[in-house]
Design a protein that fits this description.
about 500 residues, alpha/beta, five-stranded parallel beta sheet, 14 helices, binds 2-aminohexanedioic acid
């Protein structure tokens, strides 16, 4: 049986607890192996290793740091299939999507390696003669990562690659559900020649390991992706220590379909973004806001496509929808369907846990569609994180935008229309960090900022050049070569 240990100071080491937890396949229930359960003491060792390593890493020129990232990209490319298989086995997404996720990490590695030759600051004129002014980016120090299971390598890549190229060291707690891919990613860093101590992996629970990271006075910043509930707790704990936090949390994303939309295209976009990854993307579409003139036609087309979706083990190339992550998630989704029915929404498709044809061994939920949903219903307001979408009819673009913006989150939104004027009005007014025109709500590319407004985040962004703002401090530098005291704001006025 596979057993994964912590990775601290460049070595795979046992946790001081000597305890392990089983890792299971959500499609089959099979135990894949086990993983160390760490303690506060393990986190302490990881922090000390990170501290020592960062001292010299910050002095390595960024283009040289980036060379490690190029090797990371190359190794990820060589191991793409193997890594994708690990992702599908431990978190369930279908293999084609798992390959896409590894590709996202490859793209991020090349992109951030390129940043090693830029890390752009500013040179600006000084207001005084014979004086030079510039701002440069410097590393923050030690970054603590708490990452989710739904994009276990992509999100870890969004955080670790910019952190490292900018000269930081890392202490990382991956989600308990996806330890193996985390270990394999760290193995890539190791094989790429990343100096020891710069990335440290500590497996275990949020309540022990997560809190130890958040509370540690020598960890300078926390980058977290996960639920709002946990994000809020992290912010409170870290805020007391005046620690920087970058939080990426929930979504309640909508596709809007106007009366002039290409309906077949809209159906493609909705099916892919509502049921892909079994609805477990932060960017997944869980609301379909449709103009009443095309509601019935859209429903008919969606139902025909839902009936064709094949649910099963994602390792099978012919499967469209894999399992959800675990039992409690399955029960939560079933509970939301129950709530929807009680609220008076009309169930058009799915709505149940699937147990036939061997699916009872895993956590499978039927692709589900509600209609006649109103914007204020709980199923239209709360994040379900499963393959459940709700149709909300509206009478105009203005109403669609109002409904889109009526939730506590603001990650992604999409609009299908052929009308350029309506498209631009929507781009302006949809209150989300990501907007798609004539595409579903998923599919963010790594060289643009990823994140959202309102309850989705706290103003920071993952990926894109914006990621560097999380992992660097600005340092403003003035060099006076006049040979005399020049007082700013005074001697020049
Ligand atoms: C997430 O769901 O947390 O845009 C990340 C997308 C992917 C990333 C999703 N590229 O759907």
């Amino acid at each position: 049986m596979k057993r994964y240990l912590n990775y601290i100071n460049g070595e795979w080491v046992e946790s001081s607890s000597k305890k392990y937890a089983a890792n299971t396949n959500p499609a089959t229930g099979e135990v894949l192996g086990e993983v160390a359960q760490s303690t506060q003491e393990d986190v302490e060792r990881a922090v000390q290793a990170a501290k020592a390593a960062q001292k010299s890493w910050r002095l390595v020129p960024a283009p040289e740091r980036a060379e490690v990232l190029y090797r990371v990209a190359q190794l990820l490319k060589e191991r793409k299939e193997e890594l994708a298989q690990t992702i599908t086995k431990e978190m369930g997404k279908v293999i084609e999507e798992a390959r896409g996720e590894v590709q996202e990490a490859i793209d991020m590695a090349y992109y951030m390696a390129g940043e090693g030759r830029r890390l752009v600051g500013e040179t600006v004129p000084s207001e005084l003669r014979n004086k030079f002014a510039m701002s440069i980016r410097v590393p923050v120090g030690i970054a603590g990562f708490i990452t989710p299971w739904n994009f276990p390598i992509a999100i870890a890549s969004w955080k670790s690659l910019p952190a490292l190229v900018a000269g930081n060291a890392i202490v990382w707690k991956p989600a308990s559900e996806t330890p193996f891919i985390a270990a394999e990613f760290v193995r890539v860093y190791e094989d790429a020649g990343l100096p020891k101590g710069l990335i440290n992996l500590v497996f275990g629970s949020g309540s022990v390991v997560g809190n130890a990271i958040v509370d540690h006075p020598e960890i300078d910043l926390i980058s977290f992706t996960g639920s709002n509930e946990v994000g809020k707790q992290i912010n409170e704990r870290a805020g007391g220590l005046l620690k920087r936090t970058s939080l990426e949390m929930g979504g309640k994303n909508a596709v809007t379909v106007l009366e002039d939309a290409d309906l077949d295209l809209a159906v493609d976009g909705i099916i892919w973004s509502a049921y892909g990854t079994s609805g477990q993307r932060c960017t997944a579409c869980s609301r379909i806001i449709v103009h009443e003139a095309v509601k019935e036609e859209l429903e008919t087309k969606l139902l025909a496509r839902i009936a064709q979706l094949r649910v099963g083990d994602g390792l099978d190339e012919s499967i469209d929808v894999g399992p959800v992550i675990n039992r409690s998630s399955l029960e939560k989704i079933a509970q939301y369907v129950h709530i929807g029915v009680e609220e008076g929404a009309k169930l058009l498709a799915g709505g149940e846990i699937l147990t036939e044809n061997g699916l009872d061994k895993g956590n499978f939920f039927a692709p589900t569609l509600f209609t006649d949903v109103t914007a204020d219903m709980r199923i239209a307001q709360e994040e379900i994180f499963g393959p459940v979408a709700s149709i909300i009819p509206v009478k105009s673009l203005e109403e669609a935008i109002e409904v889109n913006n009526s939730v506590a989150f603001g990650l992604s939104s999409s609009i299908f229309t052929q009308d350029i004027n309506k498209a631009f009005a929507a781009m302006r007014d949809l209150d989300t960090g990501i907007v798609y025109v004539n595409a579903g709500t998923t599919g963010a590319e790594i060289h643009l900022p990823f994140g959202g407004t309102k309850g989705t985040g706290n103003g920071h962004r993952d990926s894109g050049v914006a990621a560097l703002d999380v992992f660097t401090e600005w340092k403003s530098i003035y060099v006076d070569y006049s040979g005399k005291l020049q007082r700013a704001q005074i001697d020049n006025n």
